[in-house]
User: Fold this.
Amino acid sequence: MKPLIQRDDVVVSSPHKVYGPDSNDLLLQLRKQKIDKVVLAGMSANLCVEAHMRALLEDGFEVAVVKDATAAAILPGGDGYEAARQNFRMMASSVQTTNDRRDGRCVRRGLISGDK
Assistant:
């Protein structure tokens, strides 16, 4: 993923203290750079990634989620990862894989979108 994030058109924001971007400068940084398409990945799919996705969508961004670059807790009676994947399919502009991103399949089409 390093080559994908070490570019001029990539924004890495300060850490967050709650699940969503309410306590960091992500939205400000994206707006300052005139970025309106976001690709999300991260540690806690059903908490942080999903909360960021919801906030970004509500603020008018086009949001893709890289489903195999996220994870979540699996507890007796509940699978956080599967719950998040269901919500990604329902809300995200696009749900992609790391191969989609690495191979440029989505980028070549001029979209962040791929399969839902």
User: Anything to note?
Assistant: The radius of gyration is 14 Å. The chain has one domain: 2-108. The helical segments are 2-5, 26-32, 45-58, 80-91, 98-103, 105-108. Residues 108-116 have pLDDT under 50 and may be disordered.
